[in-house]
């Protein structure tokens, strides 16, 4: 089944799929950039969550140490 596309006026990278009227972005480089940015954000979020867990663990260990020396 071949899909028919029509150019969207005023946009060089957008086309309209005729049967569904959906607008499709044909800019592959922009799509790859979005995917890369998502992966970078996911990696950063994971690193931040790891650091939060480590700080929580350090705080717990410090509290335990303080309780042992003052309790």
Features:
alpha+beta, 71 residues, 61% helix, single chain
Could you characterize the architecture of this molecule?
With 71 residues, this protein is of the alpha+beta class. It has one domain. 61% of the residues lie in helices and 14% in strands. It contains 1 helix and 3 strands. The chain has a 3-stranded antiparallel β-sheet with strand order 1-2-3, with no helix packed on it. A hairpin with a 6-residue loop joins strand 1 and strand 2. The longest helix has 43 residues. The chain is rod-shaped.
Low-confidence stretches: none
Largest sheet: 3 strands, antiparallel
Listing every helix as H and every strand as E from the N terminus to the C terminus, the arrangement reads: EEEH
Q: What is the alpha-carbon Rg in Å?
A: 26 Å
* Total of DSSP H or I helical runs spanning 4+ residues: 1
- Order of neighbouring strands in the sheet with most strands: 1-2-3
Q: In terms of structural class, how would the helical and strand content be classed?
A: alpha+beta
Helix content: 55-70%
Number of domains: 1
Strand content: 5-15%
What's the total count of β strands?
A: 3
What is the average of the pLDDT values? 94
Principal-axis shape equals: rod-shaped
How widely separated are the two ends?
77 Å
């Amino acid at each position: 089944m071949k899909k028919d596309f029509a150019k969207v006026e005023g946009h060089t990278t957008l086309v309209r799929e005729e049967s569904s009227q959906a607008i499709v972005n044909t800019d592959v480089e922009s799509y790859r950039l979005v995917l890369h940015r998502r992966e970078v954000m996911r990696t950063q979020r994971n690193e931040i969550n790891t650091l939060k867990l480590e700080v929580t663990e350090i705080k717990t260990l410090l509290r335990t140490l303080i309780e042992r020396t003052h309790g």
